[in-house]
Amino acid sequence: MTKKERFLKYLYSKGKSITLTYYTGGSVCPCMISRDANNPAYSAQWHIDNSSAEDCNGTGYIEQTEVSTTLKGNIQTELQSLSNFMNRENKSEIGELQKGDIVLFGQCSASDGSWFDVSNLVEDRDYFTIDSNRYFRRNTTDINFESIVGQVSILKRSQ
Ligand SMILES: [Zn+2]
């Protein structure tokens, strides 16, 4: 058994249940290119001016399909472990850590224990639900024990 397989087996048997909600398909909302097609950005004004159009709710995407799946993950809640884990570069990238922020130290699919990549989740749209709290992914890096065995992510608690 490889290190990665062992780590996934551990997550599958000992990991905490996590609900992940993410969105697939759909298309870019017209508001995104209403000001500058070369520099897409959400426009609240476009939605005011086009109130009959579908509201993208600040996400910049419309007609998306919501998908909910259950993962199992190793959750670290101690801020001290967060600080130990992160280097200065990561800290400046994700900003100040707040009380309630956590680290997701590895995750797998809860249905069959297979690898589940979270690195492509959209930061302020897709979210994790853990113990009724909502979290957004901020930073994902590889966990490398001689070979890459998983991912570690910062989860910022939603206000
Ligand atoms: Zn929009």
Tell me what the structure shows.
This protein has 159 residues and is α+β, with helices and mostly antiparallel strands. It folds into two domains: 3-18 and 72-157, no CATH class; 27-62, no CATH class. It has four helices and eight strands; from the N terminus they run H-E-E-H-E-E-H-H-E-E-E-E. The strands form two sheets. The chain has a six-stranded antiparallel β-barrel with strand order 1-4-5-8-7-6. It has a two-stranded antiparallel ribbon with strand order 2-3. A hairpin with a 2-residue loop joins strand 6 and strand 7. Zinc ion (ZN) binds at residues 29, 31, 42, 47, 56, 60. Zinc ion binds next to loops.
Task: Quickly list its features.
159 residues; alpha+beta; two-stranded antiparallel sheet; 4 helices; 38% strand; elongated; binds zinc ion
